[in-house]
Amino acid sequence: MATEVEARLEARADNLAALDREALNKTTHGIAARIDKMPVGKWQKKLMWLFGGAIFIDSLDNYVGGGILAQLISEGWSTIDLNAWFTSMTMFGYLIGSFLSGFLGDRFGRRKALLINIMIFTLATVVAAFAPNMQFLIVTRFIMGIGLGATMPGSYAAFPEYLRPEIRGKYSGYIGLIGNVSPPIGALLTMLIIPVVGWRPIFILIAVCAFIIWILIFKLLDESPRWLASKGRYDEADAALTAVEEAYRKAGKVVPELNDEQVQEIIEAEKEVSGVTELPWRALFSKKMIRRTITVSVGLMAMNLVVQTIVNWTPTLFVMQGVSVGKSLYMTVIMLIGCPVGVLLESLLVDKHPRKWGMVVLLIAIAIAGYIWSMQTDEMVIMVTGFVLCALTYYYALVTCSAYLGEVFPTQLRLRGGGFANAMGRIAAIVSPSIIAGCFAAANPAGAVYTFVGITVFVMALIIAICGIETRGQTLEKINDEVIKDFQEHSKK
User: Fold this and answer.
1) How many domains does the chain have?
2) With pLDDT > 90 as the criterion, what percentage of the chain qualifies?
3) What is the b/e burial string over 376-397, where b = at least 16 CB atoms within 10 angstroms of the residue's CB?
4) Nearest CA-CA partner of 48 in 151, 176, 149
5) What pTM was estimated for this model as a whole?
6) Which of 279, 248, 266 is nearest to 31 (CA)?
7) Residues 403, 370: one domain?
8) Which of 158, 236, 241, 428 has a CA between 20 and 30 Å from the CA of residue 462?
């Protein structure tokens, strides 16, 4: 049912001169249009650092795992099988957290969901630092995984709602860059701290940093105006955007008014998709959505398979080949420097190439680079080719989870869609450790591991090529209005 505001717009649609601009500003597409023409400045940068900080501490908590597992193997505190359980239970926690993120974010708002998610893994990380044995650590890691699995997809999916189309890919890449300086930092922490005081202080340090991020988000993060509008809370969305616009005007920035062409576009869009539409879970599998759901799910399965293989298994691969723990961590640090390099390149280039075909080409390149890396024997060549592999992997990861993920689902379903896709992606990370652990029985464990990974991601690239849609440079409403309209029409039947 159309709201009073939308009824007023429809009644005046043929008379732009008499149109009430205040009414226009308080509609779903009016709110979106104001965001899409918002000057770029302090507001977007503040949000960038807040979401980026959440992703950073989430990633750091995850990426210390590989170095800790290698140390536990060396000390005899764990085994390859227990390490596989540690990794699988982390991913199972991620699976639960992905669904939790979607439910909380779409129901209660992006801000509240993020605060809950960060607190979960902060508390669990403190408990993990006092684990008496490997089995207890695995259980606490599962709980940590719930918070970790909810924080990252929730942040990546929500952030694009605050951005205009021209900078959406770039700024989404920036929060990925902030978050993904964590792999080399995590590896460096394990290299410097573990040999001196052990692995437990690492968890305490991460928990303290996470709590600081929680406080900043509590004080500074604004709720998404797009989400507020999707719930019919137009006055709140309008007030939030008005405050930002006034702050920009006081700072001397020009906030453009809507021109007649834009007004007409908004009116037509409101006619096509009007009122507050609640989209249930089943909308992810509707005729207009199923290809998108498949594409993002498969894309994230490929991402998790490759990223988790590199992060959690590379140090152990080195140790199993006779390299000392200290040296294996050093080699891993050099390789992982490629991660922020790949993310930086993504933030600079992502808006210059198609999202869909960029993902396909990158996956094929990763499959080739991984196999080449696994065949090397010289330590310097291993580190150089590993650096390239990490750069390609994180370029792909950011295109998929920071840019594409937040674009292909409607606002009403964005975090549940992103959460479901992430949950499907976690399945690969849950299943793959057992397969990878089995590869260690081969004469060349690294070759066996990356042959399996390469073949799998090549098949996934083919699926993305067939099912994917293009989103670059389009408004979120243009991408997703057809989905809402289709669901509204089918709901009336």
Assistant:
1) 2
2) 32
3) eeeeeebbbbbbbbbbbbbbbb
4) 176
5) 0.82
6) 266
7) yes
8) 158
